[in-house]
Amino acid sequence: MLTQKRLKEVLRYDAHSGLFFWTKDIGSRAKIGEQAGSLRKNGYLSIMVDKKSHYCHRLAWLYIYGQFPDGEVDHINHNKLDNRFCNLRAVLHCQNSKNTKLPADNKSGVVGVILDKANNKWMAYINSDGKRKHLGRYSDYFEAICVRKSAESRHGFHPNHGL
Predict the structure, then answer these.
(1) 98-123 tens-digit pLDDT
(2) Of 124, 122, 120, which Cα lies nearest the Cα of 133?
(3) What is the pTM for the complete model shown?
């Protein structure tokens, strides 16, 4: 298990930029002062320490607090490459799901608002605590958005959710 002490022996973390730098030569693949981390297919940066790969956002948490978080580390601004400490927060999975970006296939521009073509009305819904709740159908697009945003507030969604 990687410790804060070991992490600080081999890496330096700049909390303002979110970047890690090697403090020791790691064979032929890394030299002192070089930026550490490689991009994974899922869009996150990771670093290999003692033959084990770790996500940079989790390493940042360990570096600052001395332990890995119990749950997940959320990138507040949805940018997986932005590992500045001010952009990270420890959350449970259910909290992390309340701060997701707008899906690429969303057509209305707002999470939880869709056009019901059969009735030509805007339908609002919210998924919270593992359940989908119907919030109504509205002739007015703006009204459907307001209902959805109000429900997000009541259910504890992060202000960045759906951006």
Answers:
(1) 778 888 889 999 999 999 999 999 99
(2) 124
(3) 0.77
DSSP 8-state secondary structure symbol assigned to residue 23 = S
pLDDT confidence tier of residue 28, bands split at 50, 70 and 90: low
Task: Using alpha carbons only, give the angle 133, 138, 139 rounded to the nearest 5 degrees.
Answer: 160
Burial 8-35 (b: 16+ CB within 10 A, else e): eebbebeeeebbbbbeeebeeebeeeee
Strands, sheet with 35-36, edge to edge from the N-terminal-most edge strand:
11-14, 19-22, 35-36
Phi, psi of 143 (to 5 degrees): -65, -40
Neighbours of 91 (CB within 10 A): 19
Residue 113: how many CB atoms within 10 A of its CB? 23
Q: How far apart are CA 36 and CA 22, in angstroms?
A: 6
The CATH architecture to which 101-154 belongs is 2-Layer Sandwich (3.30)
Q: Where are the domains of the chain?
A: 4-95, 101-154
Question: Domain 4-95 is in which class?
Answer: alpha beta
